[in-house]
């Protein structure tokens, strides 16, 4: 017998032990080649996670809908959806039959994250209310449950029958690096490798649904204070550049609440709400986030590790949503970031090469520790995406239009000013002419490294609004103009040494790819090649080499490297070697 209960808090369940798969010869070789700590190699040694079982078909689709349309549709779906923590052994048919008492189900899926969870989307919103009315708060033997009515529920079996479970679980994690390497080593071309990487890492339909559902659950909690609020996902969850496992950036939108008081009324009267005033927008933001943070901490089912980071440049509440496994950042008064996400969504949808290249570059940067999940002097994924967009604007003919040209295509509906910043650009994808450029991903990958390996970072800034290099307005090592707040640099945090590391690695990767034009290892040789080769740890003595390198012109460096590597490269890929130790000494 099935019984649904409200979830009193976060329940810790035993993690599933997953069998490591038998290693093939290629895998063994790759593990030997990639044994440097702090890199892809380190991750490679971890046990393999199961790969996605559910094929959604979402992977190959490039969104053509307007961003706002897509967001509204997904939000409405999420409002008809519940999240249910299930017993390990459950009959899917009986479970669905039981829930169907409350109304027809549109779709559902199961996933595992410290236990088994079901995401169930009803056809009608009323079904959720009906299900909640039949749900009760649990009686705890030792603790007291704080009664809280949400759409995060727990299914209990009244009688412990031994149900035969044969549930298909949707995967919410990216493939292990070992699996990825295997896949890309067997690909037929670098284009194929980049497309494989994209397919394996991009957010699945289920993962996207889970992200919108999590926002919707948080919106219910925030609605206790602000009934008209909307919690919207932004950043990589929605800009088409998100990778499975990326954080969930949320924006608490109070515009609806604010607009209620500014709506025009007829006649000579104007009614206003009595409100409390504070000296600045920033203080208002801090106060709002402070109470929402408290509320999530005390009453939010599954919200753990709540941190209020209110003194940051952009105040936020950070927490883990345990059931979905998402690390969440909740902000408010951050509308420009939502607009940036919309702009990236458009760029990602305009040409199928954009996302493949961005995923490849992000993965390359992560593999070489150029990016990090910890804030610091590193380049961020957002900055890297801007660099790829800029590079694609610089191709001949351009693959992507400049932001200024997207602005000229805008109509009256697209007009948008946020805090005095002009955020106008065309929102309808069908009004943007596709590029006539037919360059392959392989060429673009090489040229990307070549371009930024030789970019005059010391004097030029990157600017996707105009799509051309400009003089840097200050001495920051890396200057990437914020597309909307044009006086700001989005990579102000990047140190000279991190930038130099990026440049050195870009030069090295350009060289490796160039080399392969003449000496591409055959598939049967079991050697990492193409994308796999540039994800490998770099040479151990690069630091000392860098100083010498800086003194020479790029061409001279490449020539010298070529000569020394020709003789060393093959030898250093021998099976007795623990590391990839291409010597670049000249
Ligand atoms: P992930 O690394 O996959 O999380 O990528 P992300 O794009 O989600 O980056 P992040 O979570 O760091 O930031 C979320 C969003 O905030 C970005 O997509 C941008 O829209 C915005 N953002 C991040 N950093 C900056 C910045 O330095 N300046 C501005 N203006 N916006 C930023
Ligand atoms: Mg993010």
TrEMBL record:
Residues 67-135 form the RL domain. Keywords: Magnesium, Metal-binding, Transferase. One of its GO terms (molecular function) is poly(A) RNA polymerase activity. Pfam families: MTPAP-like_central, PAP_assoc, RL. The keyword RNA-binding does not apply. Residues 444-487 form the PAP-associated domain. The keyword Transferase applies. InterPro entries: MTPAP-like_central (IPR054708), NT_sf (IPR043519), PAP_assoc (IPR002058), RL (IPR041252). Gene3D superfamilies: 1.10.1410.10, Beta Polymerase, domain 2. One of its GO terms (biological process) is RNA 3'-end processing. Residues 190-348 form the Poly(A) RNA polymerase mitochondrial-like central palm domain. Its cofactor is Mn(2+); Mg(2+). SUPFAM superfamilies: Nucleotidyltransferase, PAP/OAS1 substrate-binding domain. GO terms for cellular component: mitochondrion. This is Mitochondrial poly(A) polymerase. It comes from Piliocolobus tephrosceles.
